[in-house]
Every structure is written in C-alpha cells, then in structure tokens.
Design brief:
Blueprint lengths: L5 H14 L13 H8 L3 E5 L10 E7 L9 E7 L8 H7 L29 H21 L3 E5 L12 H17 L3 E5 L7 H4 L4 E5 L7 H8 L3 E6 L5 H10 L6 E4 L13 E3 L2
Parallel strand pairs: 1-2, 2-3, 3-4, 4-5, 5-6, 6-7, 7-8
Antiparallel strand pairs: 8-9
Helix pairs in contact: 1-2, 4-5
Length: 278
C-alpha cells in the first residue's frame, strides 16, 4: 500500500462504512480533482461506455459516455471522441463542417478501418485545429457542468490510421482541448497513443486511459509517463479471466485495471463481463 495515500484511503473507508453493502465506495463531493483522485485511486474502476449502470461495491472510478450522467460518489471520467466523428454525428459533420473531415485521395470522407461508422477529423492546419477546438470545447464544458471530474479524449492516435494527419497536429489540438478542460476544472485523460511518448504529458494530460496495455505489453511504458495516474481496460475476447487475474497478481497491468466485454454491455445483459484487479 502506498503510504502517501493512507489518509485518503481512511476517508474512503469511513465513507464506505456508512454506505451499506451495495453500490460504489463514495468519494467525497467537490474539491480539486487531484485530491479526489488520491482517494479514488485506492478503489477499483469500471468502464461503462456502452451504457450506464450501478457500479459494483468498491468501485471508485467510473468512465461513462458524455451522453450519460456521472456515477454519483465516484471519480467520474467523461468520454468524448476528440479526434474522430461519433457514429450518430457523421451526417452533421458532413453537412455543417465538411472541410473538417479528413478526405481520401478521391476526395471522399476517410473512414476509420476499424470503425466503419467513424470518420477522421482534420487536424492538419492551425486554422482547422482552432475550428475543431471551438466545436469540441462546449462538449467539454458540458462534462464539467454535469459534474464529471475528468474528460477522456478518444482517438488521439488517429494519425496512425489517416493519411495527411501527423502526431504533431493531433497533439497540438490535444493541447488546446486540455487547456479548455483545465479552465473548467477538469482533468484531461490521454487515450492510448503510447507512441506519443513524453509529448503526451507535454500536451498537459493529467492521466492516461489505455486499452489492453497488458495484452500488448505496454503498461510499463505508460507507467513511465504517468506513474499511477493510469487506468487500463482489458477485453475478455483477448484475455481470459484467469489470464487477467495472473496479470494483476504479477503487476503486469496497473492496479486500476478492469476486464470488460468489448461491447461494454450493461450489467445484467448477455455477455456482460466486469472483473477488476483484486
């Protein structure tokens, strides 16, 4: 146990004793995100982008889509697609901001090969980055207004999938968005993109959310950049519950790791999996 967190842990445990035997371990409302993180980091994480549901006992950190409210009593992370279009918003982008969508060699909207209902956002020039920041900034403000503690900006690594984008361009937009998050009292989470190296923290990110760093042997790399401000999601389609438990025991994944089903289905539905490191 990290001795520097004993006081925060004590606060969590006292609150838990008052909370009964169901639901998350509450984290005190209000205050600086760093203080709230210190308390929450002693618990467990859930990754609920597929839909909100009541967190299990002991859960202190919950990530949810921006369309859902934060999980009451937890350090709550608000998911936003910062570098690609959301599936439901594609037509809006093409109608209202067609020049901000990445185009292929034929001039057609460029589609993410792994997510065929998402298009890339064009971060290639300062002018386009400023326009994108102006569009996304109110969404970040909305996360703060809803009571979230942090915002997770997905697809930072879109430069690896779309011709014409660069790491430098994406990180320049990231820095703009991180500044907006900080202005609204939120932490900002880097999503994946270990290849960015020191430029990730250099853009101002406060923590990192990784996917399958254990599966791809990347967890140590993230730890070098962010220490214990790191949450990880492994997927049962790639990693069995037994292998995940072994990863946790060996320290091959961060303490704040969770095994989920890839669709991130809600509790009680077919195929739902949610196992945290003990």
């Amino acid at each position: 146990m990290r001795s520097g967190h004993l006081l925060a842990l004590a606060l969590v445990l006292v609150t838990a004793s008052l909370a009964g035997c169901a639901g998350p371990v509450p984290v005190a409302d209000g205050g600086d995100p760093a203080a709230r993180w210190e308390a929450a980091s002693q618990g467990a994480i859930d990754y609920q982008l597929g839909g909100a549901y009541d967190p299990a006992q002991g859960t202190t950190i919950v990530a949810r889509d921006a369309s859902d409210p934060p999980a009451e009593g937890t350090f709550s992370i608000c998911y936003l697609n910062g570098f690609q279009t959301q599936p439901a918003d594609g037509e809006w982008w093409l109608s209202e901001h067609p020049d901000l969508v990445v185009r292929d060699s034929a001039g057609e909207p460029a589609i993410d090969p792994g997510w065929p209902d998402e298009m890339g956002l064009d971060t290639s020039t300062p002018e386009r980055r400023e326009q994108l920041a102006a569009i996304i900034s109110p969404w970040i403000a909305g996360c703060a207004d809803d009571g979230y503690d942090a915002v997770e900006l997905d697809n930072l690594d879109s430069w690896t999938r779309f011709d014409g984008l660069t790491m430098a361009g994406n990180l320049a937009l990231a820095a703009l968005l991180v500044d907006v998050a900080h202005e609204h009292g939120l932490w900002a989470a880097q999503k994946n993109a270990l290849d960015a190296g020191e430029a990730g923290p250099g853009a101002g990110f406060d923590l990192v959310v990784s996917e399958e760093c254990g599966q791809y042997d990347e967890c140590a790399g993230y730890a070098e950049l962010y220490g214990d401000r790191h949450v990880d999601v492994e997927y049962v389609e790639s990693t069995s519950e037994e292998d995940f438990a072994a990863m946790c025991e060996a320290g091959d994944v961060p303490e704040l790791s969770v095994l989920r089903d890839r669709p991130l289905s809600v509790d009680g539905s077919d195929g739902h999996v949610r196992v945290s490191c003990p």
